[in-house]
Design goal:
Length: about 375
Amino acid sequence: MSARLIGLLAALLFVAGCLHQRDSVNFIASGNPEKLSDWGLFTVANGRIAPHAGMVTYELNSPLFSDYAQKWRTVWMPKGVAATYDPAKAFDFPVGTIVTKTFYYTVPANDAPPQTSGTVIKMIPATYQSGVSGLDLHHVRLIETRLLVRRTAGWVAFPYVWNADGTDAALERTGADVPLTFVDGSNRTDFIYSVPNQNQCAGCHVQDFRTRSIDPIGLKARHLNRTFPGEGGEINQLQRLVAMGYLKGLPESRVPQNGNWEDSRTDTAARARAYLDINCSHCHSATGAARTSGLWLDAGTADPRVRGLCKPPVAAGRGTGNRPFDVVPGHPDGSILPYRLASTDPGAMMPELGRSLVHKEGVALVTQYILTLKGACDADNGPS
């Protein structure tokens, strides 16, 4: 078969793959749609993935770490309904809401086609493209798109893994493993990117042991309260949602706001607490799965002891690294918290899910934060 004929067939297959794409969002009230395209969220064509009408791109003050993957986040709601503001918890979203998070990496410029590249490049800051009008895919490998869908009975999670053509993604309810090589300057690390199964999605998104319901993690006031480009220009994201009719009940003042952990111009403690909040507090809070540890890392916790200062672990073991306290003021090398963040041992690492690599910048920030803390842990295990 000639090269020209092969190229023609490839082009026809690509067009065929795009023809089944819907041109508007399609809320599916039940069942498990096998293809991402069944939802009608995006158009993939001409080296670009673009959102459909009504999909709002948003970004967090401090994003959660996921093996250095970049993320494009959107939310869509049916016309005539709105989410209800809450100062602390995830907003109360109406039935029909679809939240998407697309995970992708930048690949070397000479890797063509990029969707088949096994080599991915570290990009700092954590967001490579704003995604407001979609993503340029010319040097991008799409890995997965996770959906949270608000149905009548509550939120349902759907993990979709992109195909080798980058034309669509298939539902992988049992998860998937994607072998990759991560390039950080002159260092190369082979790792397995793990797409979570639906039960693992619940492991993080169930944030209240009493209700056992799945809820979004990032769609909270303190994470969204920031300016970001989009409809209406570069304005506050919460005000944009109000203007679009997507949010009601936003107060005029006293809206909580987490810091940007990457902004070195701001207070180290605020940055570190924002980082720990987004990465850890869905479990480590008064209502989370790790509440019995006594270590709560949400931004609202004020008690130093509950935040880990001079607090011994509830259960000893290799997860402690033979360190006596979660946080020892001024002594990160004697603290459990940075030890677990820097570990890749499944029996010691934290978070337990969502990463195979160490987030060096995050560990460095938490280490710097502990160095700023004053006091000492006395014989009675209390800060003095």
